[in-house]
Amino acid sequence: MGSVKPPPFDYVRAANLDDVWDALDADEDAKVIAGGQSLIPLLSLRFASPSLLVDLGALGELTGVQLTDSVLRIGALTRHCEVERNAAIRAAAPLLAEAATWVAHPQIRNRGTLGGSVAHGDSAAEFPAALLALDATMVARSRAGERRVAATDFFLSYFTTALEPGEILAAVELPVARSSSTWGFAEFARRRGDYAIGGAAVQAERDADGSCRSVRAGLLAAGPAPCLAPGLADAFAGRVVDRQLIAGVVDEALARLAPGENVHGSAGYRKDVIGEMLRRALASAFELGEVA
Amino acid sequence: MKTRVVVNGEMYERDVEPRMLMSDFIRHELGLTGTNVGCEHGVCGSCTVVLDGEPVRSCTMLAVQADGRRITTVEGLSNDGEMHGLQRAFTACHGLQCGFCTPGFLMTLLPVYNEGKRLESEEIREVISGNLCRCTGYQQIVESVQMALDEAADLAESGEGPDRPSDDADVS
């Protein structure tokens, strides 16, 4: 892979948010770093060469999990292992806690942060797909204050998000799961923990009679940016979901996706994998039993 | 940039470039070459060390990020020349052939061992999922871990507690 050592850069460990704004203002090639589990490999492969790294690791303002009646707020520095185990997250956003168990391997989950994964904007990553399905809101912060961006407006293109220069991701906010909520997650990779070849994160609401009130499915590795599966909400609304309905809806969604070929295989193969993962995640969410 | 780290219970202070990886700091600055560097971009797990009680990949961390923290490397496992329980089990069960990946496996397993819990084979495979071994096919590694964890659990239940690497110097 042509691995070498990171190129030279300056480094500052921010003691407070003003340190961050000052550093980002002073150097347009500066990048922020938290757990570094995506950025440091990119530095070692020399795919990135920032002039300055601003370490956010000591900023208490970016930590913590707060639960109110309707909103769960998770600080950007919350590590993957904490998303996996935190009792409030497991209760209020079980899809996100499940997604965390699929992120890489234990050693990486001990360092990597939720905010880092989201701001990195990799379409093959678990958290962006789960946050799209959960209809999350990203809380961006700059010297001017906080700005809220819907997850659907956040992921723009290859590793490109709606964060502006001088802005960092401070937290994500999620609607709290209700008794009517249900979810499913499925992912395929050659080795568990490797980057997904395809995957899907599903969050849905059901009415008392079992019919679907709303459904959203974030897809992994389906395009340049993390994205939602198209057409699900209208097709499912008010209907009792069964395998036949899922099969038809997934076929229609796939017809509107163009994942392209990559190192994992041809475009057709990748579409098949994404479709199968979407079918499984939907079947799991609507409790239609294990899929062989 | 000044970096102070406690490694295997001993305080080290070095002036390093910000771009120095923790794995290079451990090997080249401290001369602790038991930590092996394989892929150097966070895939193989060979360079795993224990940071404040948790396994992390030292190639995917900057030395300056470890300032003020505690690290245990494979050199910190043995006690007065006595092999650690994990090392004894890997020896007994043939959990290694070439041995390149072994320090990474041992350090990944140390926190689990210290918990004194027994794990099923599937759970062991999940714990070591981030470590690659090209010799053993993993079966003997899983058997080694099973043996070590069973011994540690027996000790914990008898009230003696498992081996723990000494790590008592103050960072501040």
From TrEMBL, chain B:
InterPro entries in the record: 2Fe-2S-bd, 2Fe-2S-bd_dom_sf, 2Fe-2S_ferredoxin-like_sf, 2Fe-2S_ferredoxin-type, 2Fe2S_fd_BS, Beta-grasp_dom_sf, Diverse_Oxidoreductases
Domain called 2Fe-2S ferredoxin-type: residue spans: 1-77
Residue span of region Disordered: 152-172
Keywords: 2Fe-2S, Iron, Iron-sulfur, Metal-binding, Oxidoreductase
GO MF terms, alphabetically ordered: 2 iron, 2 sulfur cluster binding; metal ion binding; oxidoreductase activity
Record has Oxidoreductase as a keyword: yes
CDD domains the record matches: fer2
Pfam families per record: Fer2, Fer2_2
Listed SUPFAM superfamilies: 2Fe-2S ferredoxin-like (SSF54292), CO dehydrogenase ISP C-domain like (SSF47741)
Listed Basic and acidic residues bias regions: 161-172
Pathway field: Alkaloid degradation; nicotine degradation
Protein name per UniProt: (2Fe-2S)-binding protein
Source organism of the structure: Flexivirga endophytica
The organism's taxonomic lineage, starting at the top: Bacteria, Bacillati, Actinomycetota, Actinomycetes, Micrococcales
